[in-house]
Amino acid sequence: MEVLTIEQLVPQEHLVRKLNAAIDFPFTYPLVERLYSIYGRPSIDTVVLNKFNTLSAFGVVHRVLCFSLASARTRSTVSLHFHRLL
To answer: Is the sign of the CA dihedral 40, 46, 52, 57 positive or negative?
Structure first.
């Protein structure tokens, strides 16, 4: 049996690694904390929302969501790249 981690599957030069290194996403917490209520259902983390929006602006989300059956291995690798950033 072989165990692989996302860190091993995502190439060092991949776009999600570069974006994660270039942008300090937790900067959004102090900007939006007054907009979130302590009551009710928990909201989606603002860092996750901002990362998703950033990835969609670069087309990474589109590539993850649009796939064909012929590229199952490529699709799973790109999906892992996406999940690594989130």
So the answer is: positive
**78, 63 contact by CB (below 8 A):** yes
The torsion of the CA quartet 48, 54, 56, 59, rounded to 10 degrees, works out to -140
Query: Residue 10: which of 71, 80, 59, 60 has the closest Cα?
Result: 80
* Neighbouring C-beta atoms of residue 64, cutoff 10 Å: 17
| pLDDT tens readout for residues 27-62 | 989 998 888 888 888 888 888 888 888 887 877 665
d(CA 6, CA 24): 21
Distances (CA, A) of 63 to 12, 32, 38, 48, 71: 19, 29, 35, 18, 12
pTM for this model (two decimals): 0.58
